[in-house]
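HUMAN: Would you supply a protein with fold tokens?

ASSISTANT:
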Amino acid sequence: MHKKYILTLITIIVLSSFINCKSKKIDKKEEIIFQEKQTVDEKYNQDKSKLLMLSYVTHKSPVISYNFKVVDSKTKKVLKKGVFVGEKIEWLDATTLKCTKHVGMIQKEEDHILSPETEKKTAMNYIIIHIN
């Protein structure tokens, strides 16, 4: 009789704990809003003889459309200008720009992923722009 009473009491406690446990409902939906921001950067090369002027809009995409202009520091003459679409532009040396292209996700077969030969082939791709 005593064991029946204890078993019944334990069953009631377990059932009441399951009944009283409720999840919270989220009524409000939160939105994530990405704001676009116009940015202008100026970067000198190593010997400060040329100035790289970048104008771009930052937003949620990693691909950025850069309007670039390279200006001679002394004469203020525009040496090169254009548009590059990719991840970033930086000086490689005093007369060369290194432009990093955007490489998205690439699906490969499984045997190629583990092969060391393909790791060498999948190196980062750059575009080199020479400034006269």
Remarks:
- The first strand starts at residue 37 and ends at 44.
